[in-house]
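Standup notes
- HV: blocked on the assembly model, inputs below
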Amino acid sequence: MTARTIGIIGGGQLGRMLAMAAARLGIRTIILEPQADCPAAQLANDQIVAAYDDPQALDELAQRCDVVTYEFENVPVAAAERLVRSVPVFPPPKALEVSQDRLVEKRFINECGIPTAPFEAIDSQADLDAALEAFGGIGVLKTRRLGYDGKGQRMFRSPAESRDGAFAELGSVPLILEGLVAFEREISVIAARAQDGTIVCYDPAENVHRDGILHTSTVPAAINEATADQARRAARAILDRLDYVGVVGVEFFVLGDGQIVANEMAPRVHNSGHWTEAACVISQFEQHIRAVAGHGLGDPRRHSDCVMQNLIGDDIEAVPAWLNTADVLVHLYGKQESRPGRKMGHITELR
Ligand code: AMP
């Protein structure tokens, strides 16, 4: 039986776009999100206004939905586990556990046979000193949990850089030190796995970040077929190992010789897959809804080359001009207030 009502934990723009895709397939959505009138609830059938870990709210969501999914990876694992006792939760809660902690994530990715940057767990300034020594004085220090869009990170680009107090500066929380990857470009693969184990992959996108936030995704990426194939195979390996259902986004660095190194995975629809709504018949959002609702997946083929650009903060002021540009799809998230660094919308330009 396919789902008629889907619960979505998280009320941001990703939840909003999932609710839109669900509506087009005649599927109802209920959002669990503490902020009333959030971007997702504006387009969903209903919202339960409560904390993500509120037991009563979770029980109500389970009772009113045929399946529950989520739009961000920091959903408390205990909440997903509570839900799973009474309703299917896709992607599986194990995917949350893996992607919430960069150390667990890197170990998991390596277990799938996919290379990552070298890494060390850092639990003290002494650990950091020793690991930086081993990495030749250069590397990227990141919080293990709750980092996103480049937040909670410190780069050591030269051995001369002072490392004193760096552990405390990042909050004296568990950290990971990664070797600095001398990449030529960054790409990501959006892939989906259905309940019967079928997998589809979109073409890799080439991503450019500004101030740690995704700026553009361009498709096709300037990579050869062998590199694209490596990336797709890596995404498949991750999906199969987790017995996954839904869409995943996997980010990679591409080295000068075309080899790939995985950076991170997101167990959800992904910003670098927003282009699929304009350049493919079936978007990543519909693909995710199909998978979690128990439908077959759609064709991920791309009918156009394209560039997706995020509209961040004041970029929103260019919307009237974008609305007057041919072959551009404008997508705004219904956020009342623009702030520096806040994702307000995106545009996809077909080429
Ligand atoms: P992340 O939060 O892991 O996605 O990192 C944000 C950005 O920092 C990435 O998109 C890269 O541009 C850069 N970065 C992160 N980790 C590394 C690394 N190990 N080596 C080189 N650049 C990195």
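- HV (later): unblocked. The radius of gyration is 20 Å. The mean pLDDT is 96.
- Next: hand off to the docking folks.
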